[in-house]
């Protein structure tokens, strides 16, 4: 399976939001990473077929999605940022409702709901009202609704917002499990959401894909340029002029810094292995 975005552009009024996005995806997790307002949601809505791009094409296995119509939409599972749930519905009723919208028969829906309740670890909570669900449970229910139609393309828009660290890890493992034979596009501005599970990371800035690659590719870019150093507090401003300070920690003797810089930012700076967070900060430090 191959999903291709060709020359995607999008304008809202006169404002250019997406600029010539070209991307080819195969099964696995694609982590769409970038600051707020850079066009991640807009791009995902285009792939989910709820927004038409101003220009460009989306091709699934070389077929234009607009020509495929329902056949394309049948392959999509979408968890938008603000999935509305009816608080007075039980989780089971909510899933039956979405299944009906997706055209599943009652029997098919019933079987699928039982399987998905287990997948997202909500089997014991299906009769509870959605309004009584915690943030993490709502996200898992959101994933279940997106999976009802066995989608081969799963689009998750900031699925981990508001989750505590434990839920975040659980959620990440769940995404990893369900990505085996699907293309999963996951947008976030939290580096750790994609750090362990993304097959490819897509760095998005101001409507453009700035860099695409495996975590290894991206961290390799900064090989030999990430340093740690213990310095007196007064040196911070001077070091900030030399490179990107990605972390500052107070210590008994001053500051422990992590810095991205081509040259050593100060005497006694030690080279360390680059992380995805270093890469993110390097690209987006100035917003
Ligand atoms: N319907 C709309 N009409 C006009 N402008 C819009 C519309 N939707 C989004 N925008 C603008 O498009 C830009 C990109 O928004 P988008 O939601 O795609 O970014 P994002 O990267 O997903 O941001 P976030 O991380 O905050 O969700 C923003 O400047 C936003 O204000």
From TrEMBL:
<keyword id="KW-0813">Transport</keyword>
<dbReference type="InterPro" id="IPR003439">
    <property type="entry name" value="ABC_transporter-like_ATP-bd"/>
</dbReference>
<keyword id="KW-0067">ATP-binding</keyword>
<dbReference type="GO" id="GO:0005524">
    <property type="term" value="F:ATP binding"/>
</dbReference>
<comment type="similarity">
    <text>Belongs to the ABC transporter superfamily.</text>
</comment>
<dbReference type="InterPro" id="IPR027417">
    <property type="entry name" value="P-loop_NTPase"/>
</dbReference>
<dbReference type="InterPro" id="IPR017871">
    <property type="entry name" value="ABC_transporter-like_CS"/>
</dbReference>
<protein>
    <submittedName>
        <fullName>ABC transporter ATP-binding protein</fullName>
    </submittedName>
</protein>
<feature type="domain" description="ABC transporter">
    <location>
        <begin position="3"/>
        <end position="231"/>
    </location>
</feature>
<dbReference type="Pfam" id="PF00005">
    <property type="entry name" value="ABC_tran"/>
</dbReference>
<keyword id="KW-0547">Nucleotide-binding</keyword>
<dbReference type="InterPro" id="IPR003593">
    <property type="entry name" value="AAA+_ATPase"/>
</dbReference>
